[in-house]
Fold Dihydrolipoamide acetyltransferase component of pyruvate dehydrogenase complex.
Amino acid sequence: MFEFKLPDVGEGMHEAEIVRWLVNPGETVKLDQIMLEIQTDKALVEIPSPVAGVVGQILKPIGQIAHVGDVLINFETQASAKSSTIAPMVATVPVVAAVSAIGTFTPAESGVLASRVRAAPAVRKRALELGVNLALVKASSPDGRVLLQDVLAYAEESKHKPTTNGASHAPILETVAPPPPVVSTTPIASGGEERKPLVGLQRRMAERMELAWRTIPHVTTFEQVDSEQLIEMRRQIQPAAEQRGVSLTYLPFIVKAVVAALKANPIFNSSLDEKTREVIYKRYYHIGLATATPDGLVVAVVRDADKLSLSQLGAEIARLAEGGRNRSLKPHELSGSTFTISNYGSYDGGMGTPIINPPEVAILGVGRIKDEVVARNGLPIVRPMLPLNLSFDHRLIDGATSGQFMRVLMELLENPARLMLDMV
């Protein structure tokens, strides 16, 4: 009998929710056939069958929380009938195919690539998504085949290795809550009321918000920016962007201004190590964008936003927004942000008090540009005003520092031509 245990799917996770089983007891399954969907902190992840065989028992039903290492399902395989080893593996695939897909390797690695790597297509696909060179992964199966858990373990280990510029990868968001009791997914009708358990992304979102509100002392400041010049600049360059296939919204401009404000005020691009009580300053700028999906809120991450042009930012933001809506984003696209923007203006929202995305120390809420009556030279006039709401961790940031951050941000958005000074 082959037992499959819940692996860490690359986010440093401790647990996941069983969302959907795609196989049933007694069913014959193929190697790498998608058998299960789980909900991690960030993403919906498909799990392929690690063996070919007949499904024995499903040990974790839908809606239950499983911890890494828990046995989820078992199989009867040809090999298990003879011994406890796993079933026969698939044929080898020339490593050249994997090399071309995985990307850039060091000269030292190139010698390793001369050998062949045994791995199933789904494992290769997952390695590609994570940027893992299969030739460097130690296989754990008895016949030398690289398994999914081998790739995930290698990817997790690589996160903690120093990068070429000496910085480590962004920290992984921690899972927070102890395992809750098993819940039923069946609504319970009672009189004129109906109860439904929080499941999937909704449950994760609730946990994250509870953690942030319970552990971080939030303070929120409110400002408005005269956005006339921003509107005019966008109007002028929008046709050129459309020729490149990019629909340029105001958000790329805001991201550019935010990155400049972060560089001028590094404490806003940091995190607090709760165990060591150290502030970790980040020298990279991964901007999270809170994105509504049919199942709840996710934070899609624009990596190295400081290295992207306005049109590149526009294209990347559009890609992430579409991926968020159809739930196709991968875990690495939903983790590692260093500062988050919540653009509730796209839903006609105005002022708000955004909740910080742990372990970050601040979040910017952006409302919709609306005509407002303001005073100029003692006279009331109507101006297009952009609402900005900055929530920050008061353990690390005080009112004066938040004011400095907002001044940089507001000056750039009121005078967007200044963004050209540092434009990539």
Q: What stands out?
A: Confidence is low (pLDDT under 50) at residues 84-115, 163-186. The first helix runs from residue 78 to 82.
